[in-house]
Design a protein that fits this description.
Layout (H helix, E strand, L loop, with lengths): L3 H22 L1 E9 L10 E6 L7 E4 L5 E7 L2 E8 L6 E8 L5 E9 L18 E3 L3 E5 L11 H5 L5 E3 L5 E3 L5 E5 L2 E2 L7 H7 L5 E7 L12 E7 L6 E11 L4 E10 L3 E26 L2 E29 L2 E25 L5 E27 L6 E25 L6 E24 L4 E24 L4 E4 L5 E20 L2 E18 L4 E3 L3 E14 L3 E12 L3 H4 L10 E3 L8 E13 L3 E3 L2 E8 L2 E7 L5 E7 L2 E16 L2 E15 L8 E16 L3 E14 L2 E4 L3 E10 L4 E8 L5 E8 L3 E9 L3 E12 L15
Parallel strand pairs: 1-7, 12-15, 31-36
Antiparallel strand pairs: 1-4, 2-3, 2-5, 5-6, 8-9, 9-14, 10-11, 12-13, 14-15, 16-17, 16-46, 17-18, 18-19, 18-45, 19-20, 20-21, 21-22, 22-23, 23-24, 24-25, 24-26, 26-27, 27-28, 27-29, 29-30, 30-32, 32-33, 32-34, 33-37, 34-37, 35-36, 37-38, 38-39, 39-40, 40-41, 40-42, 41-44, 42-43, 43-46, 44-45
């Protein structure tokens, strides 16, 4: 039997043990997220907690309406906390220790710095919602997407809300007629002759996020009605880390990619490389009825294609904190693509009684290669202790594209029509320079902010088209002087801007003005010269936002945008690859100006967000592809300023997170468009465009994740409508061995091939077009992540020697 002293000792030991156990399982980490400038709380910021060496978060929550957060039921140990919110740089708090004696850790006010540019680097190491909706921007976090793993930028863009990607790989914001694609804040069209080629080999594992900006501020070029900005990863962990992966599909498509980074005390090296082998095939049908005063006749066309593409991309970056006030960032990008193409066409000529009078068969063989190199350098300097910052950036690029195609045409009947054989050799070279100087500074006790800057863009394009026709009598190729020529294009744009941002007690008001002076000239080797008179354009930009009751946001914006005619639309070189449907550019195009206004509302809950928006725009001198049919039945397609366009759009965006492991997002848009043309009364038309996106992501037990996406778009054009089809994708991922290995299985369009159905109509014709391609596919991906953390333990000096 225990003595009273022994009993008291046992009781005390039990209580201490109980307290230790309680503390070990009841640890708390709390804090409050506020703005660095002004100290306003940030409700619904995303906060994640990790074990010190873990890759995946233990838990992810949002701050409440007062910006506060709290993690409970934590065991003793060392943790790290990550806080992120749209428009602010991500903040990390490392080495937060929970012990039995100190189990309630209050981190106090955690200040998030406002991103001076939404195009700056944002460091991401943890799981974030796949889609984040802001007042005037949507952010798609690529690293959080299962479907994005082991794919390319083109594949990722197909799953971004409000974004559509056509059959040629061109991406655009739904409802916007002119969308620009940026990479790390730089216009990508200056980087390659065909942005689709670059996006098709740019590995998704090297992409941090994609930003959809419907109303870019004055800092960015006035070109386009919206911007898709692809932000690349820069490397973010101390030490050496990266990943390698491979992706294979049942149709023969193959991807291989890898990226790595090393972060030292004040510098960071990052690199990525990828290879893509892609097989594409499909078919199309076109039925055209031609109306003339004395007759009606028909052209039916059946096409098929089979393409093989190979591409590689290599990126290298260096980021150096010279000192606490200076930073230098250098990056290079090189990509190369090659393609082999073969296709066949059958052209049926039918008379008014719908009787076939001629049948022409055409076979086409082609090959091409594209090489592109970009050098980019950015220097930033903190000019004073109040937060003034100067940034200088320069981008140099060079690009070459060579393409060779042969067209073999023969008539099945009547037999008296001669065959033709044609060869086209097309060489395109692009060179460009972009320079920008930006300065921003907080004023009035850091409540407000001023920004101003200068920019210069230079672009040169040389297009050499050489066409030969085979002479069957002499058995030799003869130069076609009418089609062979060289096109030389130069563009210089000098810009300046200034803006002021006012913030106080939930109000945010930003006004800016950008001026751009444009000088363009181009000519042909045939002696034709085109001089466009230099012109000055002003682009005002105004936005006002009111955040109230800590969970609602009301905003309005106004801006003016421009769509400048580029070389592909201006080049008068004739393309007769399809001799019944020839095309060429129009050197007399004028720029198109658009006035656009948005009113948005945002409601944010602990587990949901809803951000509807109404947009109204008026465009004059709209640049559209326009087609006419000649009395001989040959159609000519070119560009023109077809008239004016008025558009009102409703966008509904939402995000729902019933648990920390399930996220659903949806987007719906409906656009009423009204065309008015002085060129052609057949272009005067009204119509609706509409589209929807639905996404679901789930973190399942046993380190498994699932994601699905469904998209649909249906849009009107100047001469008809592009009837959309449903695009779907599903994927599941399983992680192994402490998340270092992962396997992903995904499928695209499992319910059938992607179909496209369009109608085009003019004064004397109506055409219906149907096409489909091999979009249905099943893919298997294997990915390995490696990390080697560099020790940062302080050196302990030896004890002093005894005298």
């Amino acid at each position: 039997m225990k003595t009273p002293l022994q009993f008291l000792f046992s009781l005390l030991l039990f209580l201490l043990t109980a307290i230790n156990v309680y503390a070990a399982e009841k640890g708390v980490i709390r804090g409050k997220v506020v703005e660095e400038v002004g100290g306003l709380s940030i409700p619904f910021a995303v906060v994640s907690i990790f074990e010190a060496t873990a890759e995946q978060p233990l838990q992810t929550i949002q701050t409440d309406e007062f910006g506060a957060f709290k993690f409970i039921n934590l065991k003793s140990g060392i943790y790290k906390v990550k806080i992120s919110y749209i428009g602010f740089t991500t903040l990390f708090v490392d080495e937060v220790t929970i012990t039995p004696k100190e189990f309630d850790k209050n981190l106090g006010n955690l200040k998030l710095a406002n991103e001076q540019s939404n195009l700056n680097e944002v460091v991401i190491t943890a799981q974030k919602p796949v889609v984040e909706f802001g007042a005037d921007m949507i952010t798609y976090n690529v690293g959080s997407s299962v479907l994005a793993e082991g794919s390319t930028a083109t594949d990722v863009l197909k799953n971004v809300p409000m974004v559509t990607v056509d059959i040629d790989g061109k991406a655009s914001i739904a409802g916007k007629r002119s969308t620009r694609v940026f990479i790390d804040g730089k216009p990508s069209e200056y980087m390659t002759s065909n942005i689709a080629d670059l996006l098709n080999v740019l590995p998704s594992d090297a992409i941090d996020k994609i930003e959809v900006m419907t109303n870019p501020p004055s800092k960015y070029s006035g070109d386009g009605e919206g911007i898709l900005n692809i932000v690349m990863k820069k490397g973010f962990k101390v030490g050496f880390n990266g990943n390698v992966g491979v992706n294979v599909g049942l149709q023969g498509n193959t991807n291989a990619n890898g990226n790595a980074s090393y972060k030292g005390k004040n510098y960071n090296l990052s690199s990525s490389a990828s290879y893509r082998h892609n097989i594409g095939n499909g078919n199309s049908e076109s039925y055209r009825t031609n109306f003339f005063p004395d007759t009606t006749f028909y052209y039916n066309q059946f096409n098929n294609f089979d393409n093989t593409n190979n591409g590689g991309n290599f990126r290298l970056g260096f980021d150096w904190d010279i000192n606490p006030k200076q930073n230098l960032r250098i990056s290079t990008n090189y990509n190369a693509n090659s393609s082999d193409r073969q296709s066949g066409n059958q052209f049926y000529y039918l008379n008014e009684e719908y009787i076939e009078t001629r049948l022409r068969n055409q076979s086409n063989l082609g090959s091409g290669n594209n090489k592109n190199f970009v050098f980019n350098s950015d220097y930033s300097l903190q000019t004073d202790t109040s937060g003034g910052k100067l940034q200088i950036g320069i981008t140099l690029n060079t690009n070459s594209n060579n393409d060779a195609t042969s067209f073999n045409r023969a008539f099945a009947f009547p037999a008296n029509l001669n065959p033709t054989l044609q060869q086209n050799q097309n060489e395109i070279a692009n060179d460009g320079l972009t320079f920008n100087l930006d300065y921003d500074k907080p004023v009035f006790k850091k409540r407000d902010r001023i920004e101003f800057g200068l920019a210069y863009n230079y672009r040169k394009n040389d297009n050499d088209l050489f066409v030969e026709n085979f002479n069957f009598n002499t058995q030799q190729f003869v130069t076609n002087q009418k089609l062979s020529n060289k096109f030389f294009f130069k563009e210089n744009i000098l810009a300046s801007y200034a803006s002021y941002n006012y913030r106080k007690e939930g109000w945010s008001l930003k006004g800016g003005l950008r001026a751009e002076y444009t000088n363009v000239n181009f000519d042909l080797s045939t002696g034709q010269q085109y001089n466009v008179n230099p012109y000055l354009s002003l682009f005002p930009n105004l936005s006002i936002n009111r955040f109230f009751k800590r969970r609602y946001n009301l905003g309005a914006t106004y801006s003016v945008r421009i769509n400048r005619p580029r070389e592909n639309a201006l080049n008068p070189q004739i393309n007769n690859a399809d001799s019944l449907n020839i095309s060429y550019g129009n050197p007399n195009l004028d720029p198109n100006y658009t006035h656009q206004m948005d009113v948005s509302f945002g409601a944010f809950g602990q587990k949901w967000s809803f951000t509807p928006r109404i947009s109204y725009s008026v465009s004059s001198g709209v640049i559209e592809r326009y087609r006419i049919v000649n009395p001989n039945g040959i159609s000519e397609s070119t560009f023109d300023n077809v008239g004016s366009n008025t558009r009102i759009a409703l966008w509904l965006n939402g995000n729902f997170r019933p648990t920390n492991k399930i996220t659903a997002n949806g987007s719906f848009n409906i656009v009423q468009g009204s065309y008015s043309s002085t060129l052609n009364s057949s272009l005067n038309r009204d119509g609706l465009s509409y589209g929807a996106t639905l996404g679901l992501s789930m973190q399942l037990p046993y380190k498994t994740a699932f994601e699905s996406n469904i998209n649909y778009n249906n849009n009107i054009t100047a001469q008809g409508r592009n009837k959309g089809s449903i695009i779907s994708s599903f994927g599941a991922r399983k992680s192994f061995f402490k998340n270092t290995w992962s396997v992903r299985v995904s499928t695209s369009d499992p319910f059938g091939r992607r179909n496209n159905n369009s109608v085009s109509q003019g004064l004397n014709f109506i055409s219906q077009n149907f096409s489909n391609n091999n979009s249905s596919n099943l893919n298997l991906s294997l990915n390995y992540r490696f990390t080697k953390i560099k020790s940062t333990k302080p050196t302990i000096p030896p004890p002093p020697s005894k005298q």
